[in-house]
């Protein structure tokens, strides 16, 4: 007997594992719908949104226009005919109203598979599974009639499916399997208090934590619901120091919070606006006198319909994620992306698409340093509580698309969102997640039953949920002549395309800067400040590189007579004066300096190594100087601003006896003659 039972259980489990459910994907007709987006008939398509956790306000499901009508119906179809042995109806609000169910095959034959008196179930949700007496072939649609008057309140349908088996359907949350155990650590009393802590933002380095404290008597705009920005940093033992309130330059009478900490921690993106209005986002910079008054950032065509919105500026300083209810959304708050433009505004928002967004709310986006991995909070994807945290990865449309693509189609393609699972998510409310650049530790806010307020927690991110490896570049920016530290803008770009992929600020007091490179490649970077020329640098990061951190100090040279810079990112074909495309970004920068400083007269000086005859080297250096001059004039510099001269091999800066020395001697320099 025991052997027989074991075999039966094994077979049943196998049947359940192999069972396939086909979810309705087409709306044929309906009696009414409560909304055009939320609660519309199309919200009943696809897999269930609210099982197994349930929902008290299921926006991503179908509800009829009026509760308690005598009869309502919903007719859904399948684009491809399916064979079935059971019907599954996910009722998510006031279940029990389903009275009759009909199936239709591709030949027009009608099957009545359910006919019962509707009665309340006294449950917030129900999976009604109707097992068929025999398999029905090539089903093309299912029509459901609700006796709404028998079950008071709105009766909502989350999903309708056909199973090829009659075994019990058990809804599952899409979680990542096989990762190491997670321990959730509640941060101590130096961070969490008797008041509510929310919206944690960890700096890319992981050394500083910004968060919001609500209703604290120390807040600038103290009231029952007022929120201000607090801050802590790690001490030398790796412990968090006692949090302190940021100054009044960042905390005012409006609700305040940090959106993003850019690499180097010299810039913060904050909300709300500081120009007298309550809404908006702004940028502030760290100086020797503290944080500057935040400067508002403009987003084109951003017309928010709802009351709540949030934002996140990625580490490249160019890619802005928006959580808001807009007219172009799927319903409720959706996630959008916007990009930095030449006038320093951000472009019109682009919806991230239906794989990420539902008719219910998606909130608190966080794009990891790899520019591919998105973490967000959702009410509309299956989870454990009212909201859970999910992860999805952006799928490039083709192999040549880079991490910093601004093409709309590259922001519509995402993997199916993965629920981060227990204990990261719980039956309680989970807020946004923030992750340091190397992806090791993540911070989140949650209201768990054992605590009275929302608190900040930390956990070590499992490898399978981490973003891709990134590379951190840091150093200091100095005046090459005086040695003084300078507040400059560091611009970094893809050397092969000349496309700018990010920009950060250096600290005026320490000269320190940091930026993050998200993948292997060849990059150019430089510091830029008014009244200076920046020396460009480049780096090649290959798959064989074991280090994730690189250090390079950058120089700025004053725009005064006699000073010159080496054009490091200027390249020619071998033994030729033909300028290679990788040089275009460097030359565009020099052209811009000349156009912004029309009084400058400069000389382009060409040099070679000692390989070949003196005569050939002299001619080559002159031709390279002329080629650069002609190209700069073509870009917009005036002919009177430029001269050129070739010096051949006569002025080496390194020994020609080594390969590296000869490489450095083959150069072109930009020298200011007059300003």
Structure description:
With 675 residues, the protein is mostly beta strands. The strands form nine sheets. Strands 1, 2, 3, 4, 5, 6, 7 and 8 form an eight-stranded antiparallel beta sheet that branches. The longest helix is centred in the C-terminal third of the chain and has 22 residues, at 614-635. Residues 1-17 have low confidence and may be disordered.
Which helices and strands appear, and what pairs or packs with what?
Blueprint: H1 2-18, E1 21-23, E2 26-30, E3 62-63, E4 72-93, E5 98-105, E6 110-115, E7 126-146, E8 156-163, E9 185-186, E10 196-202, E11 208-214, E12 227-233, E13 244-245, E14 257-261, E15 267-271, E16 281-287, E17 290-291, E18 295-297, E19 310-313, E20 319-324, E21 334-339, E22 350-351, E23 362-367, E24 373-378, E25 388-393, E26 418-419, E27 429-435, E28 441-447, E29 455-460, E30 471-479, E31 489-494, E32 499-505, E33 512-517, E34 521-528, E35 532-534, E36 537-541, E37 549-551, E38 554-558, E39 564-566, H2 584-596, E40 601-607, H3 614-635, E41 642-646, H4 659-665, E42 667-674
Parallel strand pairs: 30-37, 30-38, 40-41
Antiparallel strand pairs: 1-8, 2-4, 3-8, 4-7, 4-8, 5-6, 5-7, 9-29, 10-11, 11-12, 12-13, 14-15, 15-16, 16-17, 16-18, 19-20, 20-21, 21-22, 23-24, 24-25, 25-26, 27-28, 28-29, 30-33, 31-32, 31-34, 34-36, 35-38, 39-42, 40-42
Helix pairs in contact: 2-3
The number of helical segments is 4
Task: Note the gap between the termini.
Answer: 100 Å
Strands, count: 42
How much strand? 35-45%
Helix content: under 10%
Largest sheet: 8 strands, antiparallel
Secondary structure category: mainly beta
Low-confidence parts, pLDDT < 50 over ≥5 residues? 1-17
Rg computed from alpha carbons, rounded to a whole number of angstroms: 31 Å
- Mean pLDDT over the full residue set: 88
Shape: elongated
């Amino acid at each position: 007997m025991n052997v027989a039972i074991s075999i039966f259980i094994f077979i049943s489990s196998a049947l359940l594992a192999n069972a396939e459910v086909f979810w309705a994907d087409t709306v044929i007709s309906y009696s009414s719908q409560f909304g055009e987006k939320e609660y519309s008939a199309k919200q009943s398509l696809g897999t269930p949104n609210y099982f197994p956790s349930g929902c008290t306000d299921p926006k991503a499901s179908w509800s009829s226009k009026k509760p308690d009508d005598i009869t309502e119906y919903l007719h859904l179809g399948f684009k491809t005919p399916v064979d079935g042995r059971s019907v599954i109806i996910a009722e998510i609000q006031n279940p029990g109203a389903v009275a009759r169910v009909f199936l239709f095959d591709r030949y027009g034959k009608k099957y009545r598979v359910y006919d019962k008196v509707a009665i309340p179930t006294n449950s917030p949700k129900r999976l009604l599974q109707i097992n068929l007496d025999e398999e029905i072939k090539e089903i093309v649609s299912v029509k459901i009639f609700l006796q709404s008057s028998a079950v008071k309140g709105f009766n909502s349908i989350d999903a309708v499916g056909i199973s090829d088996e009659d075994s019990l359907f058990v809804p599952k949350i899409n979680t990542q399997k096989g990762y190491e155990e997670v321990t959730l650590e509640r941060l101590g009393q130096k961070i969490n208090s008797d008041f509510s802590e929310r919206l944690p933002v960890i700096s890319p380095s992981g050394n500083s934590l910004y968060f919001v404290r609500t209703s604290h008597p120390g807040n600038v705009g103290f009231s029952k619901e007022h929120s201000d920005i607090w801050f802590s940093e790690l001490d030398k033992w790796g412990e968090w120091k006692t949090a302190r309130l940021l100054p009044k330059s960042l905390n005012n009478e409006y609700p305040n919070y940090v959106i993003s900490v850019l690499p180097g921690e010299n810039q913060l993106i904050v909300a709300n606006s500081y120009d007298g209005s309550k809404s908006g986002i702004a940028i502030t910079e760290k100086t020797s006198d503290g944080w500057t008054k935040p400067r508002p950032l403009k987003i084109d065509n951003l017309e928010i319909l709802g009351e709540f919105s949030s934002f996140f500026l990625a580490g490249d300083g160019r890619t802005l994620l928006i959580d808001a209810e807009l007219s172009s959304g799927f319903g409720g708050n959706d996630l959008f992306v916007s990009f930095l433009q030449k006038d320093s505004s951000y472009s019109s928002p682009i919806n991230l698409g239906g794989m990420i967004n539902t008719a219910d709310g998606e909130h608190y986006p966080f794009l990891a340093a790899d520019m591919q991995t998105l973490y967000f909070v959702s009410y509309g994807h299956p989870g454990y509580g009212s909201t859970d945290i999910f992860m999805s990865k952006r799928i490039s449309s083709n192999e040549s698309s880079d991490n910093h693509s601004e093409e709309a189609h590259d922001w519509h393609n995402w993997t199916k969102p993965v629920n981060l699972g227990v204990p990261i998510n719980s039956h309680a409310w989970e807020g946004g997640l923030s992750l340091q650049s190397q992806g090791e530790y993540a911070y989140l806010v949650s209201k768990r039953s054992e605590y009275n307020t929302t608190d900040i927690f930390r956990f070590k991110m499992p490898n399978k949920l981490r973003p891709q490896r990134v590379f951190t570049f840091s150093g200091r920016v100095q005046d090459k002549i005086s040695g003084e530290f300078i507040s400059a803008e560091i611009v970094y770009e893809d050397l092969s395309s000349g496309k700018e992929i990010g920009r950060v600020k250096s600290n005026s007091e320490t000269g320190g800067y940091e930026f993050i490179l998200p993948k292997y490649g060849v990059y150019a970077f430089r510091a830029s400040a008014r009244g200076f020329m920046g020396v460009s640098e480049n780096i090649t990061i290959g798959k064989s590189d074991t280090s994730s951190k690189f250090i390079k100090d950058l120089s700025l040279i004053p725009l005064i007579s006699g000073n010159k810079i080496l054009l490091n990112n200027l390249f020619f074909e071998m033994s030729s004066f033909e300028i290679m495309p990788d040089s275009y970004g460097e030359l565009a920068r020099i052209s811009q300096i000349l156009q912004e400083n029309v009084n400058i007269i400069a000389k382009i000086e060409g040099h070679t190594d000692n390989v070949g005859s003196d005569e050939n080297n002299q001619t080559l250096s002159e031709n390279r100087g002329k080629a650069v001059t002609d190209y700069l004039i073509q870009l917009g510099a005036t002919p009177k601003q430029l001269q050129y001269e070739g010096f051949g091999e006569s002025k080496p800066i390194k020994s020609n006896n080594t390969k590296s020395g000869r490489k450095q001697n083959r150069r072109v320099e930009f020298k200011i003659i007059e300003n």
